[in-house]
């Protein structure tokens, strides 16, 4: 490594990945904050939206969020076996930019096509770029963890930029300007990546070693799948069949859950694990359920909570009506402010040998999530008496959810790589994203139910969510007494 040319003392290639991820997340979160507002917006008048129902719109949002993270799994496979991670990130970034620009064209077909491109592009980019971060470090380099921490900051700087620019343009000027701005952001990321990709050196350059025949076979599989997929998508867009979004979202949720369940079962029974590995797998299984539940609440920010901000919250600051999406600033800003504090607390506790075990940290994350929805139930109660309510309610909700995120998310991935069976390491990454995918689609389904009858139907759904957070948190706490060794 050339030490005269580093990025905060890290390999200079981290800068390339940092900026690429920053722009990608700018486009992702910027567009996502507009999505349900655009779909549910009145179909006539200034800045007309699509005028779709809450149930449909939230279901589409859920399918989108679920698909984005589900596609990380095939995206990883394609990078491992065909493209190599570096090239996968480049192609992914190009497809994402294309997706946002397609969304900027105001037709219903281009709306869906744009979302599909963003899904496919993110599948190629999101997981693989994180893999390259790890590959910048050699062997057991203990800088790797702090490299990932810096990388996590790029995510939050990116989403802040996204809310700032896309929400303002989209809501105040016109939806399609907001989508276009996301595309321009991603284009900056692409240009930067192309210019500075050489700084990555060999990291993520080569796919797995295999015979030419095998690679050809894999490439053919991919081609056939792509042709099949685009034929179905094309037929759908041309109106040959119609899909009920809620029905599709429900089936997709079952599908993801079954896939995850079968995978765990396969590992448990057929992977030849010893007793200790099996015990760890049970731990991971519960953490997986905890993570999926957590994200099903967390992803309400761009779903039901976004609508609560629009319809029932007073957004005026000193006489200026801020864009609805700006409330979502709270999450990235709080991550940046509190990440060092959380790290400090864990370190202090560790010194006294009191640092919470993995399941306990997940339980803490879920308890914060439960508390955040408890706050929302109070806000809904007040709004039922007199709407709109002040924005402090949503801000407090996001504060609690973000504390939850800080307890659960940064350690989740390392937990999966540490406690997963060694021979299946590569797939643990996909498994972690699969939990986000399940959370995303559930978020859309629950958000739709919550908003189906206006304010009245919100609290029963949020109460139901609080119940399952508490049950899973309780199970994890019990587990933490059984498995004492699982320190992160
Ligand atoms: N803010 C995180 C990100 O965008 C949320 C997340 C965590 C998403 C884990 C997917 C998986 O990266």
Percent of residues in helical segments?
Answer: over 70%
**Do you know the CATH topology?**
Growth Hormone, Chain: A
Largest beta-sheet details: 2 strands, antiparallel
Supply the helix-strand structural class.
mainly alpha
Strand order of the largest sheet: 1-2
Q: Judging from the principal axes of the Cα atoms, what is the shape?
A: globular
Query: From N to C, what is the helix and strand string?
Result: EEHHHHHHHHHHHEEHHHHH
The mean pLDDT is 93
Q: How many DSSP-defined strands?
A: 4
Bound molecules: phenylalanine
CATH superfamily: MFS general substrate transporter like domains
Count up the helices: 16
Give the tally of structural domains. 1
Q: Report how far apart the termini are.
A: 29 Å
The CATH architecture category equals Up-down Bundle
Overall description:
By secondary structure, the chain is mainly alpha-helical. It has one domain (3-216, 250-480): Growth Hormone, Chain: A (Up-down Bundle). Helices cover 76% and strands 2% of the residues. It contains 16 helices and 4 strands. The strands form 2 sheets. The chain has a two-stranded antiparallel sheet with strand order 1-2. Helix 15 runs antiparallel to helix 16 (458-482). Phenylalanine binds at residues 25, 69, 155, 409, 433, 436.
């Amino acid at each position: 490594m050339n030490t005269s040319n580093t990025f905060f003392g890290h390999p200079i290639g981290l800068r390339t990945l940092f900026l690429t991820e920053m722009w990608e997340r700018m486009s992702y979160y910027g567009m996502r904050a507009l999505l349900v507002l655009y779909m549910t917006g009145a179909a006539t008048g200034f800045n007309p939206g699509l005028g779709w129902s809450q149930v449909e719109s939230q279901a589409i949002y859920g399918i989108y969020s679920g698909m984005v993270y589900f596609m990380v799994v095939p995206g990883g496979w394609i990078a491992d076996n065909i493209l190599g991670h570096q090239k996968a990130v480049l192609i992914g970034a190009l497809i994402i930019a294309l997706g946002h620009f397609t969304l900027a064209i105001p037709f219903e077909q281009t709306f869906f096509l744009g979302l599909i491109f963003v899904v496919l592009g993110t599948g190629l980019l999101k997981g693989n770029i994180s893999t390259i971060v790890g590959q910048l470090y050699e062997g057991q380099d203990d800088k790797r963890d702090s490299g990932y921490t810096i990388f996590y900051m790029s995510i939050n700087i990116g989403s802040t930029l996204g809310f700032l620019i896309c929400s303002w343009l989209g809501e105040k000027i016109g939806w399609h300007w907001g989508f276009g701005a996301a595309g321009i952001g991603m284009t900056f990321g692409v240009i930067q990546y192309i210019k500075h990709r050489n700084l990555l050196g060999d990291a993520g350059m080569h796919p797995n070693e295999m015979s030419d025949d095998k690679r050809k076979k894999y490439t053919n599989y991919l081609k056939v799948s792509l042709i099949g997929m685009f034929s179905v998508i094309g037929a759908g867009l041309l109106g040959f069949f119609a899909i009920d979004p809620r029905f599709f979202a429900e089936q997709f949720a079952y599908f993801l859950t079954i896939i995850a369940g079968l995978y765990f079962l396969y590992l448990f029974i057929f992977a030849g694990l010893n007793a200790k590995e099996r015990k760890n797998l049970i731990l991971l299984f519960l953490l997986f359920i905890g993570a999926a539940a957590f994200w099903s609440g967390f992803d309400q920010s761009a779903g039901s909570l976004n609508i609560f901000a629009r319809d029932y919250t007073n957004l005026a600051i000193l006489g200026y009506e801020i864009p609805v999406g700006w409330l979502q600033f709270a999450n990235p800003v709080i991550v940046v402010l509190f990440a060092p504090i959380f790290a400090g607390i864990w370190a202090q506790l560790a010194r006294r040998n009191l640092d919470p075990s993995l399941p306990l940290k997940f339980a803490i994350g879920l308890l914060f999530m439960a508390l955040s929805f408890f706050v929302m139930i109070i806000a809904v109660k007040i709004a039922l008496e007199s709407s709109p309510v002040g924005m402090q309610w949503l801000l407090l909700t996001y504060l609690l959810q973000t504390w939850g995120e800080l307890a659960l998310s940064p350690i989740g991935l390392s937990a999966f790589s540490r406690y997963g069976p060694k021979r299946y390491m590569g797939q643990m990454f996909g498994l972690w994203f699969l939990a986000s995918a399940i959370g995303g689609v559930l978020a859309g389904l629950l958000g739709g139910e919550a908003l189906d009858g206006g304010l009245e139907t919100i609290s029963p759904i949020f109460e139901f969510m609080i119940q399952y957070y508490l049950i899973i948190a309780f199970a994890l706490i019990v587990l933490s007494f059984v498995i004492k060794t699982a320190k992160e």
